[in-house]
Amino acid sequence: MKTFRIVIISLLLAISCAVVAHDLPHNLVTVNMKIVEADTKKVTPVMMCIQNAETKEVVVPPYGKVVKEFSTVDDYVSGIMFSSDPNWVGPVRKTTGKGAVDQRRSFEYDLAQPVPFWKAPALYQTSGNFSINLKPGKWLISISHGYEYIPVLMEEFVVPADDHNFDIQYTLKRWVDMPSRGWFSGDVHVHHPTTKPEYRDFLINFAKAENLHVANVLNMGYHHQYGDSKSGIDFEQEGFGKKFRTRSGNHWLVSGQEDPRSKYGHIIGLNLSKFERDTLNYDYYDRVFENIHKQPGALVGFAHLAFNGCEVLQGLPWFITTNEIDFIEILQLTKINALGYYDYLNLGFRITAAAGSDLPWAATIGEVRTYVYTGKRFTPDKWFKGMKKGNTFVSNGPMLFFEADGKLPGTELKIAKGKIAKLRVEGLGQDAVAPIHRVAIYNNDGLVQKVKNLDNKHSVKLDIDLPINKSQWLVAVAYCNNDAVAHTTPVYYVVDNQPTWSPENAAEIISRHMQMMDDVEAETTDAGIVKRLNSARAFYRKMLKTMNVEELKYETVEQKIANNTLSAPRKLEKVKVEGGGFIMGDPFNNGDQPMHVVTLSDFEISTTEVTNYQFAAFLNANKIDISTMFNNKSMVLAAGAQNRLEFVDNGWKVTKGYDNYPVINVTWPGAVEFSKWVGGRLPTEAEWEYAAKGGKLSKNYTFSGSNDVKQVAWIGLNSIARPNEVATLLPNELGIYDMSGNVNEWCADWYDVYPKKPVANPKGPDTGDYRIFRGGSHREVDSNSRVTRRNAFYPDAGFSLVGFRVAF
What we know:
By secondary structure, this protein is an alpha+beta fold. The protein folds into 5 domains: 26-172, Immunoglobulin-like; 180-396, TIM Barrel (Alpha-Beta Barrel), CATH 3.20.20; 397-501, Sandwich (Immunoglobulin-like); 505-554; 574-803, paralog of FGE (formylglycine-generating enzyme) (Alpha-Beta Complex), CATH 3.90.1580. The longest helix has 22 residues, at 2-23.
């Protein structure tokens, strides 16, 4: 009977295939694709995008269907069901454009590609051995197999008209073999359920397509009083511990957790033998830390420092004092927060640098990677052990090797004062993946030394002999021309048994942490949280005493009111910007390209961002109240966090002490209406960048007025994640304040890709979906405050990171 069934099924399959072939429209060709690794000579799953060369439409196997909708976060929450059918295709991810509320692409990418080398508008997983029906003619194909293989990028192929079956093979070559050097890649932050075999098959084949060795698959918790899930958990895991690991060759899935997740940040637990969760004491993270560390080989990490996201700044400054944090995510969603990482190193904490994609908010698994040294005999347990020791670097493209006296990152080396340390750095890149721009070494005091890749080599080396006169940490960094980056965990040199902290920087860092803790305490009635805050304060004060450094006091707004030291409300002032020509755009970030020549006429621009006091005057003069917040059918001011404007007694008033803070939660139409009221307009994007660079007086700074971001910009590093009074840092060459940091600023233009040809007085396209804003904000990392960095948002939305200034 079994034999009879097999014969019948085989006949049916044969008939089915024959019918498909016979019914194939005459204008379509079956293209049989095969993707092979050159080193193994085996077919491999890959990430891919096929496009019509003329229309640029994205199509997917097997029928060449045009993609109309991209996958969403909810698709992953529900779970992706894998099929062994070679023509099965994974979720189609959007890789270009601006993020949207439909969660098809994260807002955190701004306008950049999620994978720095990728150029296609989409990315999807394939088996590497499939068929697709295509019309005869020209097509574009893009193929990626992780960061160690040379990708195929927008390569043209032609489907012949005289052949109903057409075979094509692509052979992918390695440009670097990290496992042969003992380094294996991992992603510490992946979300997807694993409760079904099809879910696990999807993930393990996804990891193989991206050539990722360790995928840490995390459930995602939240307090039971939040969300829709009765359990308070999304992305449920089949189980925890070695029994529930999934393996295919050298590719592994290991269960972990992202929980707790509250207003104090998001915690990651890796290599767990059981899920740790306490909903009754949910915000007491330290209890979870302790319980996770009772599990053999388990690690605790803080998520999202890379972009200062998800309330990390509200919790990490005090939970770090528990000394229970093993690692921090410093690279994620194209952003790296090295300066934020250095703050904690300068306080003597030893924390492993990690990178996690945060799939499905990321476009692909292994989008950023934590490379761990295990030696050539790899196991997941060795990987976690190496991560615990700090034998890591993070990357989204280049490879980076750093040795200090022959020792790996994460190593402590005791050395006599004045002895010479031999430091060796090598950055490896490849033209298509990660073209190296420079490599550098940093320590507590900043840049030690760097070398630029003037000859466009694939290997850039930096060898120095460094006298060690005090205890210190040292890291290596590789920067690429496409904004890809790699960064190591430090090596730690210890002199006379002194900590590797930085007394010169500690007072300022701790002062910011104290301010943040005061803000947290002001918003809680939980005695347990207050107790933990006081414990952290005592920890920092003891640290300062040991350093023999005085605590740096700060003056709160309330103290300024009591001491009568508030600044008088500022009037709107402007400065003339003499017109001229300049190169607009960024040579590194693909979202800010192409670079092009712009010529501008003279104009004027306000020296500060529009303040609460100034905007309240506008609202009152135009009799705009709560019931008439819409002007020309567009909202003028949106409610939101940190809004300091209140409608009281039939008029708008500014919360006392906040007159000179930038107005926020203003929509684009609201900014336009105010600008008209003062006889001006919003600056065009080109005017904004020209003024931010200093116009004809430009010294080509990275930020507006300096290469040191802290001198000119309030960002997540120095702002306590809130707006600050305008004009309290240094101005740029034209006397303009805060064009980097504090709040982003609306521009007049709709978003579009830059032109390639020279333009004069550009105003952008006539229509669009998003309006441009520029400058970075008080919550963001330093790269967002570069004078060339673009961003955009819905014009009718206002939020706490955006304000504006006026042009004339």
